[in-house]
Amino acid sequence: MHMADALISPAVGGALWSAGAALTYYSAKKIGPEFHAQKAPLMGVLGAFVFAAQMINFAIPGTGSSGHLGGGMLLSVLLGPYAGFLTMASILTIQALLFADGGLLALGCNIINLAFFPCFIAYPLIYRKVVGDNPSQLRLTIGLTIATVVGLQFGALGVVVETMSSGISELPFQTFAMFMLPIHLAIALVEAAVSAAVLGYLWKEAPGLFAVRTHTNAPATSSLRRAVIAGAIATMLTAGMLSWFASTNPDGLEWAIQKTSGKEEVEASSRIHELAASWQGKIALFPDYQVALFGSTNAKESKREEAPSWPAVSEGTSAAGLIGSTLTLLLAGAVGAGCHILAKRNVS
Amino acid sequence: MQRLQAHLDHFRRLDDLARADSLIHRLHPAIKIITTLIFLITLASYAKYEVTGLLPLLLYPVALITLGRLPLDYFAERLMFLMPFVAFVAIANPFLDRVPMLQWGALTITGGWISFVSIVLRFLLAVTAVLALVATTGIHDVCSVLMRAGVPRILVLQLLLLYRYLSLLLEEAYRIEQAYLLRSSGSGRGIAPKVWGSLAGSLLIRTFTRAQKIYDAMLCRGFVGELRLLRPAQLTVTSLAYLAGWTAFIVSARLINIPVRIETLFRGVFG
Amino acid sequence: MSHHTISMQDVQYTYQDHTQALQGASFLITHGESVALIGGNGAGKSTLLSLLVGIVFPTAGAVTIGGMELTHKTATEIRRRIGMVFQNPDDQLFMPTVFDDVAFGPLNMGFSQEQTKQLVNEALATVGVAHLSLRSSHRLSIGEKRAVSIASVLAMTPDILLMDEPTSGLDPWSRRQLIGLLLKFGHTKIIATHDLDFAMDVCQRTLVLQNGRVVADGPTHEILRNADLLASCRLEPPLRLQSN
User: Fold this and answer.
1) What is the ipTM of this complex?
2) Which segment of A54-58, A85-89, B17-21, C120-124 scores lowest on mean pLDDT?
3) Could you give the angle at which helices B111-137 and B139-148 cross, rounded to 10 degrees?
4) Is B222 an 8 Å CB contact of chain A?
5) Measured between alpha carbons, how far is B186 from B194 in angstroms, rounded to an integer?
6) Which tens digits make up the pLDDT trace of B208-252?
7) With left for phi above 0 and alpha for psi between -120 and 50, is residue C68 left, alpha or beta?
8) What burial letters (b/e) apply to C47-69, b meaning 16+ CB within 10 Å?
């Protein structure tokens, strides 16, 4: 359920990027240089472990299908929330960079969905409360299960909300949510069972490793609250700024020109516009607004206004863009072929 | 098993590609990262129904792939692997948005189909751009730039360690899975959760031991908690020209619908 | 030349699980000596090496390197003079590529970017793996990994080399290369090994450890001929001496 770049808008991506960055800085600061030096290798190898473990499928009993490990909760339990968050963030970054699994612009979304919720919400508010300082195997399992479910539900909801606010998918909120939430409930239950099995094994075979957690950082609620607030402020600031920018300037230049001229057809209201218009006229490069509709950046608005007339649009007009697109592709192909030859010559 | 194998293969290929040499490899890593970000942000800023306007952006991955001497199937394999989630979200559009937007003779195309094609195109462009970045830059240079850009050193060190130990852990996981599947009856599709606990658990314990050893080795080589990295090569005029050129192209592609302009020009000349 | 000497005075070390790994080890190694450290599994070889670089600190007794006692305070300083080559190169080589890995030590020691690059190139050339510099550590053969491990230590220009089982996993050819390489080095060396033929080739002196104590200390050719001593320490004479 990694978010992809194709599904998000710059405002959503940017806002959650800031939130992710704020939380990363906060966590890095919080764990401090001493912990950093000592636990850095452990975080690194545990990250690789979680990455690898995610690739091992295990059978979901009675269904004939298979699931895999998530990791946010497991890392929080083993490393504490801050180091767990950083490790999860690094896994997501590597997945985005190396495997294109989750987009680069969507990295903030993925960090919030898959690292923030388990490490900063589910772990301290549920797992720690249920499990306490002297856990039994039963409490461990119960705490882990509830925390994993809550963490993953938040994560799935995150995916839905981010997709909705980006406005690129048509899925209605309810449909999407009704699909995502139950599926992730099932996934969470299995993930919890697997995490509990792994931790249970560790508990029996190497109880000393649990000590890693106890003396590191069982976080003070106040500092956690600070982390959440910092993330929220970063999100709102960026979202606010970006949406202000987007609303005042939805389609860049075109819109700005329309706004100043007050009409759809660009009116030459200044000398510069006049010059531009005469230049356009001469080489006939600027299309008629109608022809450009297919490719126009504000097609959505146009669609709403002109929807009834659409089926009646003449063939010549609506085919607009088709020839141009073909030519563009041919041109790109030609450039590609040229580059290919250039690259070959450059090496030999 | 397929997931493991696929990721291992991809990782090895990436590693080989990043070590190769080409015009793109020689550019300054910071320049490549900035260009990629400009590309991705611009890409995401297009309106929902944009299709023709996105086409010129294809030039960017095409140039990277050819000039960087990257194999096409490297991208194809990843695209196929990642397609399902995006397709799942996008395929709803044609069913939910049935407002006709285009008409060619008897053929009516709805807004939903146009936005569907748009999403697929964005997906293709974004994935190839990111994959091409790392395949022509390598993890060290990416990390070195991130560190100099102010990303916390602890995160940068995590990325390096993850890269280093990823294949090791993937291979161990692969061996475990193979050993299990060979000895199990072969009825299930995966490992039974009970066994999974002890398999993954023992791998986890070994991981802890390894981490301790690595820490010792880092100490022995003077590590006191502050990561230091070699600087990438000097910023060259070529690199700056590369950045300027692509920025100009990407921004103009965003502001002017190039295919439509080309068509008008074409009609002006031939029509 | 006193800063190349290594000494242990009645060093004891007990692990947290109460295993007594060393129970009073004492020896003095002087400049330029090449010493083999042999003994069965669990005799305390690895612990002894760990104590010499301050990975762990003695529960009793003192470790002195070049006249400076090894404590938490002096550990960083002392580690600059000692190069430790770990048994498993996958633990030692933790950076993505060979060049970065070898550069890690010099950069931490405060060398400039230019100096570091030079040190890395020299170290790689010394062990004969300059051609691997851009390769990824995880894609090397075990022999290559070992060579790079040694380069990563050499780049820090240490006076003393410590090695833990350097021949394990090596094929005969790589092993022969390693012997040739070590014979060229003028460093003071302590090499923990099960490979007694290797010890004969590289080390003039041998320390035998058993149950955390030094039970024999003398010229290698004498100790390795003492079949009774070796048998009591769960060892066998080197192959080339067995035919006699």
Assistant:
1) 0.91
2) A54-58
3) 100
4) no
5) 16
6) 888 889 999 998 998 887 888 888 878 889 999 999 999 999 999
7) beta
8) bbbbbbbbbeebeebebbbbeee
CB contact under 8 A, A294 and B51: yes
Neighbours of chain C (3+ CB pairs under 8 A): B
Letter for the amino acid at A14?
A: G
Select from B1, B60, B196, B210 the residue whose CB has the most chain A CBs within 10 Å, as the one to mutate to test that interface: B196
Token digits for B248?
């100009």
What residues of B are in contact with residue A347 (Cβ under 8 Å)? 21-22, 69
pLDDT score for B246: 95
Separation of alpha carbons C63 and C14, rounded Å: 15
β-bridge mates for residue A58, sequence order: A67, B191
**Dist CA A218 CA A82 (whole Å):** 10
Q: Which of C200, C204, C226 is nearest to C215 (CA)?
A: C226
- State how far Cα C9 lies from the chain centre: 19
Please give the Cα distance from B224 to B240 (Å, whole number): 36
- Say yes or no for a CB contact (<8 Å) between A55 and B152: no
Among candidates A241, C224, A288, A74, which has minimal Cα distance to B261?
A: A288
Q: Kindly report, residue by residue over A271-316, the tens digit of the pLDDT.
A: 444 554 444 444 333 333 333 333 333 334 333 433 333 333 334 4
Chain center to CA of C176: 17
Where does the pLDDT of residue C186 fall: very low under 50, low under 70, confident under 90, or very high at 90 and above? Answer: confident
The residue with tokens 């592609």 is B253
- Assign A231 to helix, strand or coil: helix
- C71, two tokens: 């404590």
> Contact at 8 Å (CB) between B113 and A294?
no
In DSSP terms, C28 is beta-bridged to C7
- C78 token code pair: 């002392």
**B264:A324 CB<8 A:** yes
The token duo for A320 is 């607009």
Which is nearest to A187 in space by CA: A163, A162, A151?
Answer: A151
Task: Tell me, yes or no, if B159 comes closer than 8 A to chain C by beta carbon.
Answer: no
Residue C158, min C-alpha distance to chain B (Å): 11
Q: Which amino acid is at B78?
A: R
Report the residue from C79, C92, C96 with minimal CB separation from B163: C96
Tokens 């063939």 sit on residue: A315
Nearest Cα neighbor of B254 from A251, C214, A104 is A251
For residue B218, which residues of chain C lie inside 8 Å, CB to CB? 94, 104
Task: Give, in order, the Cα–Cα distances in Å from C225 to each of A289, C221, C243.
Answer: 98, 6, 12
CA-closest candidate to residue A149, choices A195, A108, A112: A195
Distance CA A276, CA A269 (A): 11
Q: Evaluate if residue A256 carries a pLDDT over 70.
A: no
Phi, psi of A295 (to 5 degrees): -95, -5
Query: What are the start-end ranges of the E strands in chain B?
Result: 100-104, 107-110
